Amino acid sequence: MSGTAVDVALDVEFFCDWMGRLARAIEESCDELTRLDAAIGDADHGINMVRGMGAAMDALSSVPPRDPGSVFRTAGNRLIAVVGGAAGPLYGSAFRACAEALGSAPVVSLSRLAKALRAGVNAIQRIGAAEPGDKTMVDAWLPAVAALESTGHEPVRKAAAAAEAAAREGMLATIPMRARKGRASYLGWRSEGHQDPGATSTRLLFAALVDATR
Amino acid sequence: MIQSVDRAIRILLALQDERVLGVSEIATRLGLAKGTVHGLLQTLAAHSLVEQDPTSGKYMLGPALLVMGNVYLNSHDLRVRSLRWVTSLGEGTGLAVRLGVVVWPDVVVIHHVGPADVAVPVSEVGLVLPAHATALGKAVLAFHPERHQVISEPLPRLTGRTVTDPAVLQRELDDVAATGIAFEDQEAVVGESSVAGAIFDRSGQVVGAVALVVPAEDGGIAPALVAAVRDTARGISRELGAATWPGGN
Fold first, then answer.
1. Which residue of A99, A200, B66, B199 has the lowest C-beta tally within 10 Å?
2. Which residues contact B196 (CB under 8 A, 6 or more apart)?
3. Interface of B with A (CB under 8 A)
4. Mean pLDDT across chain B, nearest whole number?
5. Residue B248 falls within a domain, yes or no?
6. Are residues B17 and B124 in the same domain?
């Protein structure tokens, strides 16, 4: 790594590309998300997320966003409006909190992105009252955000990869957990041995971030 | 209380929580000697209330409990008399309907009709929900004669909207007691709201509640849905012999 810290400047195109890649990844994983949710939820996570990200992409292409914050705001608003269950309010509020944190900055540094995503996961925890270990999307979000925060001035690609790896690890760690929040918590021990669908879609968010840095 | 009966029941409850447990695990959990636990398990196994996994030697709940559970459901007056009401509330609204009784701190679902838009709804009969965070639970608790003693400790937080302060919940229950109708706005799980009506028997005691589960994205609970729940709860209460219902007939 070079000794001179060169902070990256992520622009509105980057964020649109990120959302587009997330939408495609969600679509490709729709069946898997539904299968995971059928085991411990109400089997609608895949279809809900596909519908929500589809609506987000439609909105982003019909009114091109001015800045990175607007990308998150538009996507968040659409997710809240069209996605049922817990996923809409949780992802939607997270994206809106990210938008809030980014303000109208035309370009975003890595550390600013980390701050925005921290605001996002804070919103999720505020709404869902989930703590680490409750077997929710928080178990993937928190380590991913922490990984981004600790990367400082590394190349964006490397930082994103670290976040994705952390999200993936967090996602896999939900498998043996007993759900303590959300519908899955109604199942008690029956939720053990199943990967959390929300943590799985969260990993896709960070995987799409890695793809966008290619 | 008969000590050995109490211990046997606590073994059943431990197995309900953990599904599979060995003799020493149960002994540790209950603070009893292994020999005592072993004897109790032998007795329960003789009545098929527990059974032993032949490979691991560990214990789990037995088939006699399913038989008992079914007898409970089929002889439960509230449930039997509510069936057609619950079905028609589900058909009329297209939403999921739950019928529940309160075993504080839980609500146990004793009948359930899935939402119309789900092809293969999962049965929620036997599901245990947090009473303080559900419309079902609040509808019943509001008429619980000792609710001020029962609800006194801080309550578990399940979402950002859960009412955890017992004093705040008591005030909400005062309102429910005046109308017979309780609401819940994503207090148990994010994305799910609910409205419930209390059900009374001929003695005027609250015996359970019926609830409509409303997706939060519908943006609030329409007055027509509240009216449908009220009519259902009042109708079931009347069928059970209740002379009056809160807010008049």
1. B66
2. B134, B135, B136, B138, B139, B181, B182, B183, B184, B209, B210, B211, B212, B229, B233
3. 17-19, 118, 122, 124, 127-129, 157-162, 186, 189-192, 215-217
4. 93
5. no
6. no
CA A120 to chain centre: 9
- B198 and B109 within one domain: yes
Q: Is residue B85 part of a domain?
A: yes
Same domain, yes or no: B80 and B120:
yes
Which pLDDT tens digit goes with each residue over A59-109? Answer: 999 999 999 999 999 999 999 999 888 999 999 999 999 999 999 999 999
* Total tally of structural domains belonging to chain B: 2
User: Is the link from the previous residue into B105 a cis peptide, with omega within 30 of 0?
Assistant: yes
pLDDT tens, residue by residue, A5-53? 456 799 999 999 999 999 999 999 999 999 999 888 888 899 999 999 9
Query: Residue A3: its pLDDT value, please?
Result: 37
Does A208 have pLDDT greater than 70?
yes
**Neighbour tally for A131: CB within 10 Å:** 14
The reply to whether residue B159 touches residue A183, judged by beta carbons under 8 angstroms, is no
User: Which is the CATH superfamily of the domain at A12-212?
Assistant: DhaL domain (1.25.40.340)
Last residue of a domain, one of B48, B66, B84: B66
Same domain, yes or no, for B45 and B86?
Answer: no
**Same domain flag for B115 and B201:** yes
DSSP assignment of B132-144: GGSHHHHHHHTT-
Q: In this structure, is residue B159 part of a structural domain?
A: yes
Task: Output the pLDDT for position B186.
Answer: 95
- Residue ranges per structural domain of chain A: 12-212
What pLDDT shows up at residue A5? 44
Strands (E), B10-64: 50-52, 59-61
Structure tokens at B17: 């929580």
Residue A24 is predicted with a pLDDT of 98
Q: Which range (A183-197, B55-69, B111-125, B201-215) has the least confidence?
A: B111-125
CA distance A28 to B102: 43
Pairing of strands B181-185, B96-103: unpaired
Q: Has residue A188 got a pLDDT over 90?
A: no
CB-nearest to A85 from B17, B127, B191 is B191
Task: Say yes or no for a CB contact (<8 Å) between B118 and A188.
Answer: no
Give alpha helix (H) positions in chain A: 12-28, 30-40, 45-62, 68-82, 87-102, 110-128, 138-151, 156-173, 197-212
Establish if B247 belongs to a structural domain. Answer: no
| Mutation site for B-interface testing, chosen from A183, A190, A191, A196 by largest number of B Cβ within 10 Å | A183
- Domain hosting B8: range is 3-66
Residues from chain B that touch A81, judged by Cβ atoms under 8 A, are 217
CATH code of the domain containing B156: 3.30.450.40
Complex prediction ipTM: 0.83
